Amino acid sequence: MNPTTTVTLKVDERASNAAICRDEFARLLHATFGLDCLDSVTACDRPNVILTTDGTPSGANVHDSFSITLDEGHLDIHANTDIALLIAVYRFFHEFGVRYTRPGRACETIPSLDASDFLQGTLSLHQTASHVHRGVCIEGADSIDNILDFIDWMPKIGFNAFFVQFENPYSFLKRWYEHEFNPYADAEPFDNGIAQHMSDRVDAAMAARGIVQHRVGHGWTGEVLGYSSKYGWERGITLPKEKQPLVALVNGTRDLIDGAPILTSLDFANPAVIPSLTEHVVEYAKRHPNVDCLHVWLSDADNNICECEECSKERISDQYVRFLNRLDQRLSEERLPTRICFLLYHELLFPPEHERIANPERFTMMFAPITRTFEKSYADVDYVHGVSEPKPYIRNQYVMPNSLEENLSYLFAWKKVFDGDSFVYDYPLGRAHYGDFGYMKIARTIARDIQYLDTLELNGYISCQELRVGTPTFFPNYVMGHMLWDSSLDYDELKREYFQTLYGEDWNSVVRYLESLSKLSSCDYFNAIGERHDSSMVQRYAAIVDEATCFLPAIEEHVMSCSGSVKHEWLLLSHHREYVLHIASALHDLAAGDTEGAQRHWHEFLDFIRRNEPLTQANLDVYRVIEVAKNYAGFKL
Protein backbone atom coordinates (compact mmCIF):
# COMPACT_ATOMS: atom_id res chain seq x y z
CA MET A 1 0.00 0.00 0.00
CA ASN A 2 1.04 3.58 -0.60
CA PRO A 3 2.26 4.83 2.83
CA THR A 4 0.81 8.28 2.17
CA THR A 5 -2.73 6.87 2.02
CA THR A 6 -2.63 4.81 5.23
CA VAL A 7 -1.95 5.47 8.89
CA THR A 8 -1.43 3.01 11.73
CA LEU A 9 -3.79 3.14 14.70
CA LYS A 10 -3.42 1.81 18.24
CA VAL A 11 -6.37 1.89 20.64
CA ASP A 12 -6.12 1.24 24.36
CA GLU A 13 -7.77 -2.17 24.69
CA ARG A 14 -8.56 -1.48 28.33
CA ALA A 15 -11.25 0.92 27.15
CA SER A 16 -14.71 -0.65 27.26
CA ASN A 17 -15.50 1.23 24.05
CA ALA A 18 -12.22 0.47 22.25
CA ALA A 19 -13.98 -1.15 19.29
CA ILE A 20 -16.25 1.77 18.52
CA CYS A 21 -13.49 4.32 19.08
CA ARG A 22 -11.38 2.42 16.55
CA ASP A 23 -14.21 1.99 14.04
CA GLU A 24 -15.46 5.56 14.24
CA PHE A 25 -11.98 7.04 13.98
CA ALA A 26 -11.21 4.92 10.93
CA ARG A 27 -14.55 5.73 9.29
CA LEU A 28 -14.25 9.48 9.76
CA LEU A 29 -10.55 9.57 8.86
CA HIS A 30 -11.33 7.97 5.50
CA ALA A 31 -14.40 10.13 4.89
CA THR A 32 -12.62 13.38 5.81
CA PHE A 33 -9.01 12.92 4.64
CA GLY A 34 -9.21 9.92 2.31
CA LEU A 35 -6.84 8.01 4.57
CA ASP A 36 -7.22 4.38 5.64
CA CYS A 37 -6.33 2.96 9.06
CA LEU A 38 -4.27 -0.11 9.81
CA ASP A 39 -4.13 -1.57 13.32
CA SER A 40 -0.69 -1.28 14.87
CA VAL A 41 0.37 -4.89 15.25
CA THR A 42 3.55 -4.82 17.34
CA ALA A 43 4.56 -3.05 20.49
CA CYS A 44 7.69 -1.68 18.80
CA ASP A 45 5.68 0.08 16.11
CA ARG A 46 5.23 3.77 16.52
CA PRO A 47 1.62 4.18 15.42
CA ASN A 48 0.50 7.36 13.70
CA VAL A 49 -2.56 7.49 15.95
CA ILE A 50 -2.77 6.47 19.61
CA LEU A 51 -6.07 6.51 21.54
CA THR A 52 -5.68 5.95 25.29
CA THR A 53 -7.77 6.26 28.42
CA ASP A 54 -7.22 6.21 32.17
CA GLY A 55 -10.41 4.17 32.45
CA THR A 56 -11.61 6.27 35.38
CA PRO A 57 -15.17 5.18 36.33
CA SER A 58 -17.81 7.87 36.01
CA GLY A 59 -18.78 9.29 39.36
CA ALA A 60 -20.26 12.24 41.20
CA ASN A 61 -17.01 14.20 41.10
CA VAL A 62 -15.57 12.99 37.80
CA HIS A 63 -15.46 15.60 35.06
CA ASP A 64 -14.73 14.00 31.69
CA SER A 65 -11.58 15.41 30.12
CA PHE A 66 -9.35 14.83 27.12
CA SER A 67 -6.23 16.04 25.37
CA ILE A 68 -5.73 16.00 21.60
CA THR A 69 -2.31 16.56 20.04
CA LEU A 70 -1.67 16.34 16.30
CA ASP A 71 1.85 16.87 15.01
CA GLU A 72 2.29 16.26 11.28
CA GLY A 73 0.48 12.96 11.04
CA HIS A 74 1.14 11.79 14.60
CA LEU A 75 -2.02 12.04 16.70
CA ASP A 76 -2.36 11.34 20.41
CA ILE A 77 -5.82 11.40 21.98
CA HIS A 78 -5.97 10.73 25.70
CA ALA A 79 -9.00 10.84 28.00
CA ASN A 80 -9.66 10.15 31.65
CA THR A 81 -12.88 8.15 31.06
CA ASP A 82 -13.98 5.83 28.28
CA ILE A 83 -16.88 8.03 27.17
CA ALA A 84 -14.53 11.03 27.11
CA LEU A 85 -12.29 9.13 24.69
CA LEU A 86 -15.15 8.67 22.23
CA ILE A 87 -16.22 12.30 22.67
CA ALA A 88 -12.62 13.31 21.92
CA VAL A 89 -12.59 11.24 18.70
CA TYR A 90 -15.63 13.10 17.44
CA ARG A 91 -14.24 16.40 18.68
CA PHE A 92 -11.03 15.88 16.68
CA PHE A 93 -13.00 15.68 13.45
CA HIS A 94 -15.19 18.59 14.53
CA GLU A 95 -12.02 20.69 14.56
CA PHE A 96 -11.63 19.87 10.87
CA GLY A 97 -15.18 20.84 9.96
CA VAL A 98 -17.23 17.68 10.55
CA ARG A 99 -20.66 18.56 11.93
CA TYR A 100 -23.23 16.34 13.61
CA THR A 101 -26.46 18.33 13.28
CA ARG A 102 -29.14 15.66 13.76
CA PRO A 103 -29.27 12.05 15.02
CA GLY A 104 -28.35 9.49 12.38
CA ARG A 105 -25.13 8.98 10.47
CA ALA A 106 -26.84 10.22 7.29
CA CYS A 107 -27.11 13.66 8.93
CA GLU A 108 -23.36 14.11 9.38
CA THR A 109 -21.76 16.84 7.28
CA ILE A 110 -18.23 15.77 6.34
CA PRO A 111 -15.90 17.98 4.31
CA SER A 112 -13.59 16.41 1.75
CA LEU A 113 -10.09 17.46 2.78
CA ASP A 114 -6.67 16.60 1.45
CA ALA A 115 -4.61 13.94 3.22
CA SER A 116 -1.93 16.57 3.80
CA ASP A 117 -4.28 18.41 6.16
CA PHE A 118 -3.81 15.47 8.51
CA LEU A 119 -0.28 14.36 7.59
CA GLN A 120 1.15 17.88 7.83
CA GLY A 121 -1.33 19.42 10.26
CA THR A 122 -0.94 20.49 13.87
CA LEU A 123 -3.50 20.76 16.66
CA SER A 124 -3.36 21.02 20.43
CA LEU A 125 -6.59 20.89 22.41
CA HIS A 126 -7.05 20.13 26.11
CA GLN A 127 -10.51 20.31 27.67
CA THR A 128 -12.41 19.32 30.78
CA ALA A 129 -16.20 19.12 30.77
CA SER A 130 -17.92 21.97 32.56
CA HIS A 131 -20.47 19.59 34.10
CA VAL A 132 -20.44 16.01 35.37
CA HIS A 133 -24.01 15.10 34.41
CA ARG A 134 -24.77 15.72 30.73
CA GLY A 135 -27.68 13.57 29.71
CA VAL A 136 -31.03 12.97 28.09
CA CYS A 137 -33.97 10.92 29.37
CA ILE A 138 -36.27 9.15 26.92
CA GLU A 139 -39.84 10.37 26.45
CA GLY A 140 -42.52 10.35 23.76
CA ALA A 141 -42.97 7.62 21.15
CA ASP A 142 -39.89 6.01 19.64
CA SER A 143 -38.88 3.29 17.23
CA ILE A 144 -35.81 1.27 18.09
CA ASP A 145 -33.95 3.12 15.32
CA ASN A 146 -34.90 6.47 16.85
CA ILE A 147 -33.39 5.43 20.17
CA LEU A 148 -30.23 3.92 18.68
CA ASP A 149 -29.64 6.92 16.40
CA PHE A 150 -30.03 9.29 19.35
CA ILE A 151 -27.62 7.29 21.52
CA ASP A 152 -25.14 7.27 18.63
CA TRP A 153 -25.49 11.07 18.32
CA MET A 154 -25.00 11.94 21.97
CA PRO A 155 -21.18 11.70 22.31
CA LYS A 156 -20.81 13.51 18.99
CA ILE A 157 -22.14 16.68 20.63
CA GLY A 158 -20.78 16.20 24.17
CA PHE A 159 -23.38 14.21 26.12
CA ASN A 160 -22.23 11.39 28.38
CA ALA A 161 -25.41 9.88 29.85
CA PHE A 162 -28.70 8.34 28.73
CA PHE A 163 -31.65 7.59 30.99
CA VAL A 164 -34.07 4.77 30.13
CA GLN A 165 -37.15 5.24 32.29
CA PHE A 166 -38.64 2.12 33.86
CA GLU A 167 -37.47 -1.50 33.66
CA ASN A 168 -37.15 -1.15 29.89
CA PRO A 169 -38.40 1.32 27.23
CA TYR A 170 -41.59 -0.70 26.63
CA SER A 171 -43.94 2.30 27.07
CA PHE A 172 -42.12 4.51 24.57
CA LEU A 173 -41.72 1.77 22.01
CA LYS A 174 -45.35 0.68 22.38
CA ARG A 175 -46.63 4.15 21.54
CA TRP A 176 -44.71 4.09 18.27
CA TYR A 177 -45.27 0.52 17.12
CA GLU A 178 -48.97 0.64 17.94
CA HIS A 179 -49.13 4.14 16.38
CA GLU A 180 -51.15 5.65 19.18
CA PHE A 181 -52.94 8.85 18.09
CA ASN A 182 -52.31 8.14 14.40
CA PRO A 183 -55.15 6.13 12.84
CA TYR A 184 -53.55 6.69 9.43
CA ALA A 185 -50.88 4.09 10.32
CA ASP A 186 -51.49 0.40 10.99
CA ALA A 187 -50.28 -1.05 14.27
CA GLU A 188 -47.16 -3.17 13.97
CA PRO A 189 -46.36 -6.38 15.89
CA PHE A 190 -45.34 -5.55 19.45
CA ASP A 191 -45.26 -7.44 22.74
CA ASN A 192 -43.10 -7.94 25.83
CA GLY A 193 -40.64 -10.16 24.00
CA ILE A 194 -40.11 -7.64 21.21
CA ALA A 195 -39.73 -4.84 23.76
CA GLN A 196 -37.11 -6.79 25.73
CA HIS A 197 -35.13 -7.61 22.60
CA MET A 198 -35.13 -3.93 21.66
CA SER A 199 -34.21 -2.98 25.22
CA ASP A 200 -31.20 -5.31 25.04
CA ARG A 201 -30.09 -3.52 21.87
CA VAL A 202 -30.37 -0.18 23.66
CA ASP A 203 -28.27 -1.47 26.56
CA ALA A 204 -25.67 -2.80 24.13
CA ALA A 205 -25.51 0.52 22.29
CA MET A 206 -24.84 2.38 25.55
CA ALA A 207 -22.26 -0.16 26.72
CA ALA A 208 -20.44 -0.10 23.38
CA ARG A 209 -19.93 3.65 23.72
CA GLY A 210 -19.20 3.82 27.44
CA ILE A 211 -22.29 5.95 28.02
CA VAL A 212 -23.31 6.43 31.64
CA GLN A 213 -26.55 4.50 32.16
CA HIS A 214 -29.40 5.92 34.25
CA ARG A 215 -32.43 3.69 34.84
CA VAL A 216 -35.99 3.26 36.19
CA GLY A 217 -37.32 6.37 38.05
CA HIS A 218 -41.06 6.04 38.72
CA GLY A 219 -42.65 2.62 39.06
CA TRP A 220 -41.22 1.32 42.33
CA THR A 221 -44.48 1.98 44.19
CA GLY A 222 -46.26 -0.18 41.61
CA GLU A 223 -43.66 -2.93 42.04
CA VAL A 224 -44.62 -3.16 45.72
CA LEU A 225 -48.21 -3.76 44.57
CA GLY A 226 -47.14 -6.46 42.11
CA TYR A 227 -47.04 -4.44 38.87
CA SER A 228 -43.98 -4.12 36.66
CA SER A 229 -42.57 -0.64 36.08
CA LYS A 230 -42.10 -1.45 32.39
CA TYR A 231 -45.75 -0.65 31.68
CA GLY A 232 -45.33 2.99 32.63
CA TRP A 233 -48.54 4.96 32.79
CA GLU A 234 -50.93 2.21 31.71
CA ARG A 235 -54.33 2.42 33.40
CA GLY A 236 -57.50 0.42 33.86
CA ILE A 237 -56.03 -1.90 36.49
CA THR A 238 -58.00 -3.22 39.46
CA LEU A 239 -56.26 -3.39 42.83
CA PRO A 240 -56.58 -6.79 44.57
CA LYS A 241 -58.22 -6.53 47.99
CA GLU A 242 -55.18 -8.02 49.74
CA LYS A 243 -53.01 -5.13 48.45
CA GLN A 244 -55.28 -2.36 49.72
CA PRO A 245 -53.54 -1.96 53.12
CA LEU A 246 -50.32 -1.03 51.28
CA VAL A 247 -51.93 1.81 49.34
CA ALA A 248 -52.22 5.41 50.53
CA LEU A 249 -55.47 6.42 52.18
CA VAL A 250 -56.75 9.40 50.14
CA ASN A 251 -60.20 10.93 50.70
CA GLY A 252 -61.15 7.94 52.83
CA THR A 253 -60.27 5.37 50.13
CA ARG A 254 -57.38 3.01 49.53
CA ASP A 255 -57.25 2.38 45.79
CA LEU A 256 -55.20 2.98 42.65
CA ILE A 257 -55.24 6.58 41.43
CA ASP A 258 -57.04 6.53 38.06
CA GLY A 259 -56.43 2.79 37.87
CA ALA A 260 -52.68 3.37 37.42
CA PRO A 261 -50.08 1.90 39.80
CA ILE A 262 -47.51 4.50 38.72
CA LEU A 263 -49.78 7.30 39.95
CA THR A 264 -50.50 5.66 43.29
CA SER A 265 -48.72 6.42 46.54
CA LEU A 266 -48.18 4.01 49.39
CA ASP A 267 -48.95 3.98 53.10
CA PHE A 268 -45.42 4.44 54.42
CA ALA A 269 -46.63 3.96 58.00
CA ASN A 270 -47.57 0.38 57.14
CA PRO A 271 -44.62 -1.65 58.51
CA ALA A 272 -44.57 -3.83 55.37
CA VAL A 273 -44.12 -0.98 52.86
CA ILE A 274 -40.55 0.28 53.38
CA PRO A 275 -39.03 -3.21 53.71
CA SER A 276 -40.84 -4.38 50.57
CA LEU A 277 -39.85 -1.28 48.60
CA THR A 278 -36.25 -1.64 49.77
CA GLU A 279 -35.94 -5.27 48.71
CA HIS A 280 -37.40 -4.58 45.27
CA VAL A 281 -34.67 -1.99 44.68
CA VAL A 282 -31.91 -4.18 46.12
CA GLU A 283 -32.89 -7.15 43.96
CA TYR A 284 -32.93 -4.93 40.88
CA ALA A 285 -29.47 -3.58 41.73
CA LYS A 286 -28.17 -7.14 42.08
CA ARG A 287 -29.50 -8.10 38.65
CA HIS A 288 -28.32 -4.94 36.88
CA PRO A 289 -24.74 -4.08 37.86
CA ASN A 290 -24.44 -2.27 34.51
CA VAL A 291 -26.71 0.52 35.74
CA ASP A 292 -24.50 3.42 36.80
CA CYS A 293 -27.19 5.54 38.43
CA LEU A 294 -30.39 3.89 39.66
CA HIS A 295 -33.27 6.34 40.05
CA VAL A 296 -35.55 5.53 42.97
CA TRP A 297 -38.58 7.78 42.86
CA LEU A 298 -42.07 7.60 44.32
CA SER A 299 -45.37 7.93 42.42
CA ASP A 300 -45.88 10.18 39.40
CA ALA A 301 -48.83 12.21 40.69
CA ASP A 302 -49.51 14.99 43.17
CA ASN A 303 -51.96 15.32 46.05
CA ASN A 304 -52.11 11.55 46.52
CA ILE A 305 -50.17 11.30 49.81
CA CYS A 306 -51.48 8.98 52.50
CA GLU A 307 -53.84 10.67 54.98
CA CYS A 308 -53.91 7.95 57.62
CA GLU A 309 -53.32 9.04 61.20
CA GLU A 310 -49.69 7.92 61.35
CA CYS A 311 -48.63 9.27 57.94
CA SER A 312 -50.26 12.61 58.70
CA LYS A 313 -47.79 13.17 61.53
CA GLU A 314 -44.91 13.91 59.14
CA ARG A 315 -44.05 14.95 55.61
CA ILE A 316 -43.77 12.41 52.83
CA SER A 317 -40.15 13.60 52.37
CA ASP A 318 -39.30 12.45 55.92
CA GLN A 319 -40.71 9.02 55.08
CA TYR A 320 -38.82 9.05 51.76
CA VAL A 321 -35.48 9.82 53.42
CA ARG A 322 -36.11 7.15 56.05
CA PHE A 323 -36.63 4.66 53.23
CA LEU A 324 -33.50 5.87 51.38
CA ASN A 325 -31.40 5.38 54.50
CA ARG A 326 -32.70 1.82 54.90
CA LEU A 327 -31.96 1.21 51.21
CA ASP A 328 -28.39 2.46 51.70
CA GLN A 329 -27.91 0.05 54.63
CA ARG A 330 -29.19 -2.92 52.62
CA LEU A 331 -27.04 -2.07 49.59
CA SER A 332 -24.02 -1.81 51.87
CA GLU A 333 -24.85 -5.18 53.43
CA GLU A 334 -24.95 -6.68 49.92
CA ARG A 335 -21.70 -4.85 49.04
CA LEU A 336 -23.39 -3.15 46.13
CA PRO A 337 -21.83 0.21 45.09
CA THR A 338 -24.98 1.29 43.21
CA ARG A 339 -25.44 5.05 43.10
CA ILE A 340 -29.01 6.07 43.95
CA CYS A 341 -30.68 9.14 42.52
CA PHE A 342 -33.56 10.60 44.56
CA LEU A 343 -36.17 13.02 43.35
CA LEU A 344 -37.41 16.51 44.27
CA TYR A 345 -40.83 16.56 42.60
CA HIS A 346 -44.44 17.27 43.56
CA GLU A 347 -44.76 17.07 47.36
CA LEU A 348 -41.18 15.84 47.58
CA LEU A 349 -40.10 19.38 46.67
CA PHE A 350 -40.74 20.16 50.34
CA PRO A 351 -37.63 19.07 52.27
CA PRO A 352 -37.80 16.72 55.27
CA GLU A 353 -38.30 18.36 58.64
CA HIS A 354 -36.51 15.73 60.72
CA GLU A 355 -34.84 12.99 58.68
CA ARG A 356 -31.46 13.42 56.96
CA ILE A 357 -29.54 11.37 54.38
CA ALA A 358 -27.06 9.38 56.48
CA ASN A 359 -24.59 8.55 53.69
CA PRO A 360 -24.55 11.38 51.13
CA GLU A 361 -21.77 9.67 49.15
CA ARG A 362 -24.19 7.10 47.77
CA PHE A 363 -26.82 9.59 46.62
CA THR A 364 -27.44 12.12 43.90
CA MET A 365 -30.24 14.66 44.36
CA MET A 366 -32.33 15.43 41.29
CA PHE A 367 -34.30 18.69 41.14
CA ALA A 368 -37.28 18.35 38.78
CA PRO A 369 -39.23 21.61 38.28
CA ILE A 370 -41.68 20.07 35.82
CA THR A 371 -44.18 22.94 35.70
CA ARG A 372 -41.66 25.81 35.44
CA THR A 373 -41.98 28.49 32.80
CA PHE A 374 -39.50 28.50 29.93
CA GLU A 375 -40.28 32.07 28.97
CA LYS A 376 -37.36 33.05 31.18
CA SER A 377 -34.14 31.48 32.39
CA TYR A 378 -32.58 30.76 35.77
CA ALA A 379 -30.28 33.65 34.87
CA ASP A 380 -33.25 36.07 34.92
CA VAL A 381 -34.24 35.44 38.53
CA ASP A 382 -33.79 38.14 41.16
CA TYR A 383 -32.07 35.97 43.74
CA VAL A 384 -31.86 38.73 46.33
CA HIS A 385 -35.51 39.74 46.41
CA GLY A 386 -37.38 37.17 44.32
CA VAL A 387 -36.68 33.85 46.05
CA SER A 388 -38.10 33.35 49.52
CA GLU A 389 -38.81 30.37 51.73
CA PRO A 390 -41.15 27.68 50.34
CA LYS A 391 -44.84 28.10 50.98
CA PRO A 392 -46.23 26.24 54.01
CA TYR A 393 -46.89 22.58 53.29
CA ILE A 394 -50.52 21.47 53.44
CA ARG A 395 -51.05 17.78 52.76
CA ASN A 396 -52.73 17.04 49.44
CA GLN A 397 -53.38 20.71 48.69
CA TYR A 398 -50.20 21.33 46.74
CA VAL A 399 -50.40 23.61 43.67
CA MET A 400 -47.56 22.97 41.25
CA PRO A 401 -45.63 26.23 40.67
CA ASN A 402 -44.93 27.85 37.30
CA SER A 403 -42.53 30.51 38.51
CA LEU A 404 -38.81 29.89 38.64
CA GLU A 405 -38.67 31.72 41.95
CA GLU A 406 -41.02 29.33 43.74
CA ASN A 407 -39.43 26.27 42.19
CA LEU A 408 -35.98 27.42 43.24
CA SER A 409 -37.14 28.07 46.79
CA TYR A 410 -37.62 24.32 47.16
CA LEU A 411 -34.17 23.56 45.74
CA PHE A 412 -32.51 25.97 48.14
CA ALA A 413 -34.46 24.54 51.08
CA TRP A 414 -33.32 21.01 50.20
CA LYS A 415 -29.72 22.16 49.84
CA LYS A 416 -29.83 23.19 53.48
CA VAL A 417 -30.35 19.54 54.44
CA PHE A 418 -28.37 17.79 51.67
CA ASP A 419 -25.05 19.05 50.31
CA GLY A 420 -24.11 16.07 48.13
CA ASP A 421 -24.08 15.57 44.36
CA SER A 422 -27.03 17.08 42.50
CA PHE A 423 -28.31 18.06 39.07
CA VAL A 424 -31.40 19.54 37.46
CA TYR A 425 -33.79 17.29 35.56
CA ASP A 426 -35.39 19.79 33.24
CA TYR A 427 -38.11 19.75 30.57
CA PRO A 428 -37.48 22.32 27.80
CA LEU A 429 -37.90 19.66 25.11
CA GLY A 430 -40.49 17.59 26.95
CA ARG A 431 -43.48 19.76 26.09
CA ALA A 432 -42.53 23.45 26.36
CA HIS A 433 -40.87 23.43 22.93
CA TYR A 434 -44.15 22.77 21.14
CA GLY A 435 -45.14 26.32 22.02
CA ASP A 436 -41.98 27.75 20.43
CA PHE A 437 -42.45 27.41 16.68
CA GLY A 438 -38.91 28.47 15.80
CA TYR A 439 -37.10 26.59 18.62
CA MET A 440 -34.83 29.62 18.96
CA LYS A 441 -36.21 31.06 22.19
CA ILE A 442 -36.11 27.66 23.89
CA ALA A 443 -32.54 27.12 22.63
CA ARG A 444 -31.39 30.41 24.15
CA THR A 445 -33.15 29.60 27.42
CA ILE A 446 -31.33 26.25 27.52
CA ALA A 447 -28.00 27.99 26.93
CA ARG A 448 -28.56 30.56 29.65
CA ASP A 449 -29.86 27.94 32.11
CA ILE A 450 -26.76 25.81 31.60
CA GLN A 451 -24.46 28.77 32.10
CA TYR A 452 -26.17 29.38 35.44
CA LEU A 453 -25.84 25.84 36.84
CA ASP A 454 -22.64 26.60 38.74
CA THR A 455 -24.34 29.51 40.48
CA LEU A 456 -27.12 27.15 41.55
CA GLU A 457 -24.44 24.67 42.74
CA LEU A 458 -25.80 21.96 40.46
CA ASN A 459 -23.41 19.47 38.87
CA GLY A 460 -25.20 19.13 35.57
CA TYR A 461 -28.40 18.64 33.66
CA ILE A 462 -30.50 15.80 32.31
CA SER A 463 -33.17 16.72 29.79
CA CYS A 464 -36.45 14.78 30.07
CA GLN A 465 -37.53 14.97 26.46
CA GLU A 466 -38.78 13.44 23.28
CA LEU A 467 -35.97 12.13 21.09
CA ARG A 468 -37.61 13.38 17.88
CA VAL A 469 -37.37 17.14 18.40
CA GLY A 470 -36.18 18.31 14.99
CA THR A 471 -39.11 20.35 13.65
CA PRO A 472 -37.71 22.74 12.53
CA THR A 473 -34.20 21.74 13.75
CA PHE A 474 -32.29 19.93 16.49
CA PHE A 475 -30.55 23.17 17.41
CA PRO A 476 -31.80 23.16 21.06
CA ASN A 477 -30.21 19.75 21.66
CA TYR A 478 -27.08 20.82 19.79
CA VAL A 479 -26.76 23.80 22.12
CA MET A 480 -27.49 21.64 25.16
CA GLY A 481 -24.83 19.05 24.43
CA HIS A 482 -22.09 21.48 23.44
CA MET A 483 -22.69 23.89 26.33
CA LEU A 484 -22.95 21.18 28.96
CA TRP A 485 -19.48 20.17 27.79
CA ASP A 486 -18.22 23.76 27.66
CA SER A 487 -20.48 26.35 29.25
CA SER A 488 -18.17 29.16 28.14
CA LEU A 489 -19.10 28.67 24.47
CA ASP A 490 -20.60 31.64 22.68
CA TYR A 491 -24.26 31.01 21.81
CA ASP A 492 -24.17 33.14 18.67
CA GLU A 493 -21.12 31.29 17.38
CA LEU A 494 -22.88 27.96 17.94
CA LYS A 495 -25.86 29.36 16.06
CA ARG A 496 -23.71 30.40 13.09
CA GLU A 497 -21.94 27.04 13.01
CA TYR A 498 -25.17 25.05 13.12
CA PHE A 499 -27.33 26.99 10.69
CA GLN A 500 -24.60 27.60 8.16
CA THR A 501 -24.10 23.83 8.03
CA LEU A 502 -27.80 23.18 7.51
CA TYR A 503 -28.86 25.95 5.14
CA GLY A 504 -25.75 27.09 3.33
CA GLU A 505 -24.90 30.66 2.39
CA ASP A 506 -28.34 32.08 3.15
CA TRP A 507 -28.43 30.61 6.66
CA ASN A 508 -28.97 34.00 8.26
CA SER A 509 -32.34 34.45 6.57
CA VAL A 510 -33.52 31.20 8.17
CA VAL A 511 -32.28 32.33 11.58
CA ARG A 512 -34.13 35.64 11.25
CA TYR A 513 -37.31 33.82 10.22
CA LEU A 514 -37.14 31.25 13.03
CA GLU A 515 -36.23 33.88 15.62
CA SER A 516 -39.23 35.92 14.52
CA LEU A 517 -41.51 32.89 14.95
CA SER A 518 -40.00 32.25 18.38
CA LYS A 519 -40.42 35.83 19.53
CA LEU A 520 -44.11 35.73 18.64
CA SER A 521 -44.66 32.23 20.11
CA SER A 522 -45.42 31.33 23.71
CA CYS A 523 -44.23 28.17 25.42
CA ASP A 524 -46.46 29.08 28.35
CA TYR A 525 -49.66 29.54 26.35
CA PHE A 526 -49.31 26.15 24.64
CA ASN A 527 -48.75 24.52 28.03
CA ALA A 528 -51.78 26.02 29.79
CA ILE A 529 -49.92 28.68 31.74
CA GLY A 530 -52.15 31.75 31.60
CA GLU A 531 -55.69 32.40 30.42
CA ARG A 532 -56.96 30.54 27.34
CA HIS A 533 -58.72 33.68 26.00
CA ASP A 534 -55.95 36.20 25.39
CA SER A 535 -56.19 39.11 22.94
CA SER A 536 -52.41 39.62 22.83
CA MET A 537 -51.94 36.01 21.78
CA VAL A 538 -54.58 36.47 19.08
CA GLN A 539 -52.41 39.18 17.55
CA ARG A 540 -49.22 37.19 17.93
CA TYR A 541 -50.59 34.06 16.30
CA ALA A 542 -51.97 36.14 13.43
CA ALA A 543 -48.49 37.60 12.97
CA ILE A 544 -47.00 34.09 12.97
CA VAL A 545 -49.34 33.09 10.15
CA ASP A 546 -48.21 36.17 8.21
CA GLU A 547 -44.52 35.36 8.79
CA ALA A 548 -44.95 31.78 7.62
CA THR A 549 -46.93 32.88 4.58
CA CYS A 550 -44.34 35.45 3.55
CA PHE A 551 -41.44 33.00 3.86
CA LEU A 552 -42.76 30.65 1.18
CA PRO A 553 -40.97 32.36 -1.76
CA ALA A 554 -37.61 32.03 0.01
CA ILE A 555 -38.20 28.32 0.56
CA GLU A 556 -39.24 27.79 -3.05
CA GLU A 557 -36.17 29.64 -4.31
CA HIS A 558 -33.73 27.59 -2.24
CA VAL A 559 -35.39 24.27 -2.95
CA MET A 560 -34.90 24.98 -6.66
CA SER A 561 -31.36 26.36 -6.41
CA CYS A 562 -29.78 24.14 -3.73
CA SER A 563 -28.73 20.50 -3.80
CA GLY A 564 -27.79 17.64 -1.52
CA SER A 565 -28.23 17.97 2.23
CA VAL A 566 -28.86 21.72 2.05
CA LYS A 567 -31.81 21.20 -0.31
CA HIS A 568 -33.11 18.49 2.02
CA GLU A 569 -33.03 20.91 4.97
CA TRP A 570 -34.96 23.53 3.00
CA LEU A 571 -37.54 20.85 2.15
CA LEU A 572 -37.90 20.04 5.85
CA LEU A 573 -38.35 23.76 6.48
CA SER A 574 -41.17 23.74 3.91
CA HIS A 575 -42.95 21.03 5.91
CA HIS A 576 -42.37 22.99 9.10
CA ARG A 577 -43.87 26.11 7.50
CA GLU A 578 -47.15 24.30 6.82
CA TYR A 579 -47.05 22.79 10.31
CA VAL A 580 -46.83 26.32 11.73
CA LEU A 581 -49.66 27.65 9.56
CA HIS A 582 -52.04 24.95 10.80
CA ILE A 583 -51.22 25.02 14.50
CA ALA A 584 -50.90 28.81 14.75
CA SER A 585 -54.31 29.21 13.08
CA ALA A 586 -55.82 26.81 15.60
CA LEU A 587 -54.20 28.61 18.55
CA HIS A 588 -55.30 31.98 17.14
CA ASP A 589 -58.93 30.88 17.26
CA LEU A 590 -58.49 29.27 20.66
CA ALA A 591 -57.10 32.50 22.10
CA ALA A 592 -59.97 34.44 20.47
CA GLY A 593 -62.58 32.18 22.06
CA ASP A 594 -63.66 30.75 18.70
CA THR A 595 -63.96 27.12 19.79
CA GLU A 596 -65.47 25.92 16.52
CA GLY A 597 -62.77 27.56 14.42
CA ALA A 598 -60.05 26.29 16.74
CA GLN A 599 -61.26 22.71 16.44
CA ARG A 600 -61.52 22.98 12.65
CA HIS A 601 -57.94 24.20 12.30
CA TRP A 602 -56.81 21.67 14.90
CA HIS A 603 -58.21 18.78 12.85
CA GLU A 604 -56.55 20.17 9.74
CA PHE A 605 -53.30 20.16 11.73
CA LEU A 606 -53.94 16.55 12.81
CA ASP A 607 -54.56 15.48 9.23
CA PHE A 608 -51.37 17.19 8.07
CA ILE A 609 -48.98 15.72 10.66
CA ARG A 610 -50.53 12.25 10.63
CA ARG A 611 -50.54 12.02 6.85
CA ASN A 612 -46.94 13.25 6.59
CA GLU A 613 -45.49 11.25 9.47
CA PRO A 614 -43.60 8.83 7.17
CA LEU A 615 -41.70 11.85 5.78
CA THR A 616 -40.93 13.46 9.15
CA GLN A 617 -40.72 10.49 11.51
CA ALA A 618 -37.16 11.17 12.66
CA ASN A 619 -37.88 14.83 13.40
CA LEU A 620 -41.42 15.11 14.78
CA ASP A 621 -43.05 13.07 17.53
CA VAL A 622 -46.64 13.07 16.27
CA TYR A 623 -47.88 11.13 19.31
CA ARG A 624 -46.41 13.57 21.78
CA VAL A 625 -47.40 16.85 20.17
CA ILE A 626 -50.99 15.58 20.03
CA GLU A 627 -50.88 14.43 23.64
CA VAL A 628 -49.53 17.77 24.88
CA ALA A 629 -51.96 19.79 22.75
CA LYS A 630 -54.99 17.92 24.06
CA ASN A 631 -53.83 17.77 27.70
CA TYR A 632 -52.61 21.35 27.99
CA ALA A 633 -53.33 23.68 25.06
CA GLY A 634 -57.05 22.97 25.13
CA PHE A 635 -57.80 20.98 21.95
CA LYS A 636 -59.96 17.86 21.76
CA LEU A 637 -59.52 14.67 19.77
Descriptive overview:
The chain has 637 residues and is an alpha/beta fold. It has three domains: 3-127, 2-Layer Sandwich (Chitobiase, domain 2); 133-501, Glycosidases (TIM Barrel, Alpha-Beta Barrel), CATH 3.20.20; 504-633. Helix content is 41%, strand content 14%. It has 21 helices and 18 strands. The strands form four sheets. An eight-stranded parallel beta barrel has the order 9-10-11-14-15-16-17-18. The chain has a six-stranded mixed sheet with strand order 2-1-3-5-4-8, with helices on one face. The longest helix has 29 residues, at 564-592.
Summarize the model shown.
With 637 residues, the protein is α/β, with parallel strands linked by helices.
Spell out the key features of this protein.
Chitobiase, domain 2; 41% helix; alpha/beta; six-stranded mixed β-sheet; 21 helices; eight-stranded parallel barrel; TIM Barrel; single chain; 637 residues; 3 domains
